[in-house]
Fold these 3 entries.
Entry 1:
Amino acid sequence: MSETLVVNEIYLSLQGESTFAGLPCIFVRLTACNLRCSYCDTAYAFTEGSKQTVQDMLAEIHRLAAPFAARIGEHKLPLVEFTGGEPLLQPNALPLMEDLCDEGFTVLIETSGAHDISKLDPRVRRIMDLKCPSSGEVQRNRWENLRHLKPTDEIKFVMGTREDYEWAKQIIAEHKLDTVCPLLVSWVQPLLPEQQDKSLKKVPAGQTPISRLELAERIIADALPVRFQVQMHKVIWAPDQRGV
Ligand code: SF4
């Protein structure tokens, strides 16, 4: 019997948030997450989705990749990124990622950092969050994951407050994270009213919001060894548009 996964959506777009930003990418958004970050813009993936067999998912990925494979050869396939929700909540995703690596795809996973990343195929590029204080989920960081990171992985800090910035600066220095892998900093874009899911955590009291400009200028002033990034898809498309 075929293995199944609960899938929110599979679509082709541009990778928007990592050192791979701008490249064609097939996104596999899996349903469910056990965190409730204050800024989460994909709350629709907490529960919306349908069960799909791994074979059907592979067929859809092949269909979306076909124009690229036909035009520029198998070594220029689009990226495949597993995201969510939290992809590590579904163990059947791991062998699917392995199969895609075997087929020559560059496979990325975006994970909250709250789950064990060590079981992933070493060829999978792990883009792992370290949750900052304003997320309301800082206590969920699984610090043991740090020792499993490789230079091909990436750590992402999503920052919405001055407290987030100071926290991340300290964590980067304490763990010498700039010697581990690329470090990404994203600014929290305020959610639209329709994106504000009632189950999301509140930003803890007493924190001071930081603007995108202030965040960029602090990074420069402190010579922080990070890559500042904007959420590219929100610049190109409407901030709440799905499937892009
Ligand atoms: S880890 Fe946080 S931001 Fe990511 S899907 Fe879960 S609640 Fe949303």
Entry 2:
Amino acid sequence: MPYTWLNLQSHDAAAQDYLLALIERLSDAQITCCATSGCTLTLNKTQLFLTLAASTFKPFTLDFNAEKHRRKISKNALKNSLLVRACQAHLRPVVWDLTCGWGQDSFVLSSIPTTVISIEQHPIVGLMVHYAHWLLDAPQNWHVEINSAESALKTDQYPRPQVIYLDPMFPVKPKGRLSHKEMQILSTLCPSTLQKTEALLHLSLKQPGIERVVLKYPRKYNPPLKPHHIILGRTIQLCVYHPHGWLG
Ligand SMILES: C[S@@+](CC[C@H](N)C(=O)[O-])C[C@H]1O[C@@H](n2cnc3c(N)ncnc32)[C@H](O)[C@@H]1O
């Protein structure tokens, strides 16, 4: 077993080969990040589970075929989705989700269907999303890339973004007001990126051909830059920005 953080219990050759091929594409730095993350990935039958050392979390799995995810892409849910509205996904733009996390927002956007390029910097999180994407039979209009947003934007591997979506990490809620398990695991693995959000927002607005940047932000905080308009949710706001000189 070459990786101490990987536990292959599956006899499903296709699942195992796919996961190993993904891992082989990681850089040395990303492999080191996996090894020092305190996580174990376990492949059991066709499910991939993430276990966090020194935590009380039960093994976590990500499967977009599950009912809780399917519900979010029902006709009615998509019609009422603030995210779909903010990204104008019904116009089928190329959307880059630069802070993919568990890919739940990317999954919703890709189901429209529109082209979605999802970028996640943490290799363990990225592997989980990649694998969940494969379990969905790898929809051709959705690509997942394990990379930092800043480097991904420099590549020409994908169609250029017309819409960029940002959902940065926020500091963990004070004790007693715990966010749901998925978010708690992300907060443990990925540090808050609030300070970097403004830089990422400016970088996004400078991308050639960009029509809008959508930033998801807690309602109770002021976003780092004044938006052109805001779509309000119960606890979040979707801040919409247009590039300088936009004539739309
Ligand atoms: C709040 S989560 C996003 C949750 C996501 N919207 C979802 O639906 O699951 C933020 C994620 O952005 C990632 N991230 C933050 N800064 C990044 C960057 N510069 N490049 C790529 N990923 C980044 C973090 O690693 C984290 O997984």
Entry 3:
Amino acid sequence: MYLKHLICLVSILFCIGSKLDAQNILVPNYLSFEPELNYSGTIPSPKQFLGYELGEAFTLYAHVVDYFEKIDELSDKIVVKNYGKTYEDRPLMYAIITSSANHQRLEEIRQNNLKLSDPLSTPLVEAQALMKNQPLVVSYSYNIHGNEASSTEAAMQVAYRLIAANDPATQKLLDDVVFVMYPCINPDGRDRYVAWYKSMQRMMPGKEPYDLDHHDPWPNGRTNHYWFDLNRDWVWGVHPESRGHTAVYQQWMPQLHTDYHEMGYNNNYFTVPGTTPRNFLLPDRYEPLADTIGRANANAFNRHQISYYTREDYDFYPSYGSSYPSVMARLGCWWSKAVYLEDELSKQTMARFLLCVSAFLTITSPRLLPYKKGQSAKPFFSNTPMMR
Ligand SMILES: [Zn+2]
């Protein structure tokens, strides 16, 4: 069941109005996929579609694709598109989720967002006019490291949560934001891991760090078919997975991108900003934006007495999923959560949830479009040295 808790954290990114309190966080079963919301009966939940509660088993990629295609068929709030194939012939797909009204003018929104991302060619007056009727664009990428497998499970719940919940807060969210979701950007690595895990699975998940089911053997699921770490390929685009999702990224240029990872069971939670020095290609506004999000996360962690750390780790190689958006003058973040061995650690799972919620609140409430005349994405290949 521990995986269920992992999934919830990433899944509930959107519940701005959630009533969290310290007492609830200590209850292991608190993360219950928000049953209090009124969900549309015509959209199947992941549990209804897959036949098991998320977290009870890992889902093979083909079934993830099936789920997204099914909800695409049933809802006018989601469109699922293809952006290529992996070396092992798995389809690469992304989903766009927003209100049906926004879907009616999706191309206009996309074009406007591109204009807002290029202040050198969009006059300030025009940009300000566009922003009056323009939703934010936020994107999420999941499971680039295939053996950090909980996030793709979460992606299904995130999609369901967004398109099936009928509460006013969710409706407003969909009016205000276009979500571009990449449910799994390393399907070959994921399936390598999931197939291995299923072959090792016992009645009860192992709780000891050295239990066999915590150690997928070489070549493990982290990498793609050619054992390449795709989280080093955002800039170079050597592999079809990277070329595909960065092409989509550039079609949208979202204001905020988050990339979902896991860390070891004995790590606590990391939040942006990372350590210094910074990559000199970053726009000036990276620092205050990352600081704003980091402080919001820290406040949430403090409020709920959850361990975390920030500013002590993680360099800024521009080909990471977290840093590529930032050097493009957007805001890239990566959220990393611990992997759980025991249900008792569910308290920590809240940290993941809080990270997401606080980041989302931070970015949406002041509508922090990183727009400033003369501060667009810099030409990326104009400077040979990438790092200081
Ligand atoms: Zn990772």
